[in-house]
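tool=predict chain=A
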Amino acid sequence: MSAAAARIAVTGAGGRLGSAVVAALTRDGTGIPLPWSRPAYDLEDSGSAVRAMRLDRPDVVIHCAAWTDVDGCAGDPRLAMRRNAEAVGFLARACADQGARLMVISSNEVFDGERTDGLGYSEDDPVSPRNAYGASKLAGELEARREMGDGSGLWIVRTAWLYGPPGNDFPAKIVAASDRLPDDVALPVVIDETGSPTYTVDLAPACLRLLGESPGGTYHLVNGGSASRLEWATRVLARRRPGRSTRPVLLRDWVRASDTQPWGVLDGRRAADLGIRMRHWHDAMAVYLDAAEAGHP
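tool=predict ok
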């Protein structure tokens, strides 16, 4: 069945990526969107996947729902596993029972972040998460493969540093943090944490294209290039709060509950070989900031 004819359920349809996928489906006509959100679909309700599958009979499920609070996961690793791993297993089993295909959105956090050669992580690099969130996302990948096999009909899509509407993403937090400071005080931002800022408005159609271009497998989908948190924040403030200065701080001096990847860059060449190329994050960020200034995100 072609992606264009498919009934496509989207979990976490009210969230950052889920809403972008539903919007892309609605806008492009690449499938019939079936938005799944709480309470009908709930990561903590083990039976909700079966009920939703029986009700809507989707051909494909794109699983965007997750507990993405990295520090929260560090505080409650068991809950992280329940929401980000066990829930994937229940959904994958329901998909397998009904012959539906499944795309699971995973994370750069499945890698340890210790790479020092300047290259992005490829799909074949060894995984070794350093925090509870990453461990739960990797466990979710394994649950999906256990229930469905690692072949046709299952896609694992790893991405990183998502931003986009609705608000409270990294750019919005940077603007809010700067507004809380006196005008003459520089905003402290981490300089030695580097990743792949990825705009959900770009990621959503890339995921849909992957459904049509590949029978399954593991792929990395991110905007091009890489950035430190400091570089990203500086670009945001240059547009949203001109004149606000930043002050670099080191990860070791930035106290938080979770252990943070120094290097979270992903290599998207496997998808690019299929013709799925996402624009450079600079270009994506400019579009996002235009929308922000217009009052949309």
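The mean pLDDT is 95. The chain has ten helices and 13 strands.
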